[in-house]
């Protein structure tokens, strides 16, 4: 059995899903893929199912009823992975904003000693392609804000391209993770660091999607802004052991 599982949450990704599956399955490392689809009305799940026979034993899908949020999709995927024997468990977007080739680099970082490796847009300058300047600034200064409030030394706190070693997800109480949008990404990094795991940033180039629609919204941004304060306050009384 392969030791690496890539979890890809989807909602209306029919333009990208087959291409991303084929690309991941073409890599030199035999990654498995779990699609967690939130009832996409555009037929994303049907496309995945049509590929299951071709990629038997490597491609899996979990379907959920309705748009339940990014964080809950990943938690669902983490639990699915932990019920099996995967050692390296990845988060990745479906839209090619994360280069699948970088999966190998994130995995290698964990093989070299990281417990959690982050595909970082900001560890070496600002490596973002095709984003409008206001989006770049919002993302960059969100990480500055997170560092200021929480004290964690992560340059790209909202990054969604991540490799976890199994032991990290076994240790973090997944049912207590509270946030669902970008605050989920911050919470997972913050919690891993509180548990003293070795979190390493790996430089990547992030390219904005060319097909499909972004899922960013004002409510997601607000959750992240206020959620960071809640995270810090709750950490004063929470025991991480």
From TrEMBL:
Keywords annotated in UniProt: Glycosyltransferase, Transferase
Pfam families: Glycos_transf_2
Domain Glycosyltransferase 2-like: 6-172
Protein family (similarity comment): Belongs to the glycosyltransferase 2 family.
PANTHER family hit by this protein: DOLICHOL-PHOSPHATE MANNOSYLTRANSFERASE SUBUNIT 1
Protein name per UniProt: Polyprenol monophosphomannose synthase
Native species: Sphingobacterium kitahiroshimense
């Amino acid at each position: 059995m392969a030791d690496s599982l890539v979890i890809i949450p989807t909602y209306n990704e029919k333009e990208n899903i087959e291409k991303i599956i084929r690309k991941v399955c073409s890599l030199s490392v035999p990654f498995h893929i779990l699609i967690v689809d939130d009832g996409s009305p555009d037929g994303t799940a049907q496309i995945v199912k049509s590929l299951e026979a071709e990629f038997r034993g490597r491609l899996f899908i979990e379907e959920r009823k309705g748009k339940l949020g990014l964080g809950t999709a990943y938690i669902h995927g983490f639990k699915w992975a932990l019920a099996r024997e995967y050692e390296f468990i990845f988060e990745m977007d479906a839209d090619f904003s994360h280069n699948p080739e970088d999966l190998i680099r994130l995995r290698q970082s964990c093989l070299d000693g990281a417990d959690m490796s982050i595909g970082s847009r900001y560890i070496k300058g600002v490596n973002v392609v095709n984003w409008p300047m206001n989006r770049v600034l919002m993302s960059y200064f969100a990480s500055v804000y997170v560092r200021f409030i929480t004290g964690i030394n992560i340059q790209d706190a909202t990054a969604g391209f991540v490799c976890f070693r199994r032991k990290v997800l076994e240790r973090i109480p997944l049912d207590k993770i509270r946030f669902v949008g970008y605050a989920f990404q911050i919470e997972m990094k913050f919690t891993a660091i509180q548990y003293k795991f070795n979190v390493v940033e790996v430089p990547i180039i992030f390219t904005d999607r060319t097909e499909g629609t972004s899922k960013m919204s004002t409510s997601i941004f607000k959750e992240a802004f206020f959620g960071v304060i809640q995270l810090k306050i709750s950490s004063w009384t929470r025991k991480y052991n």
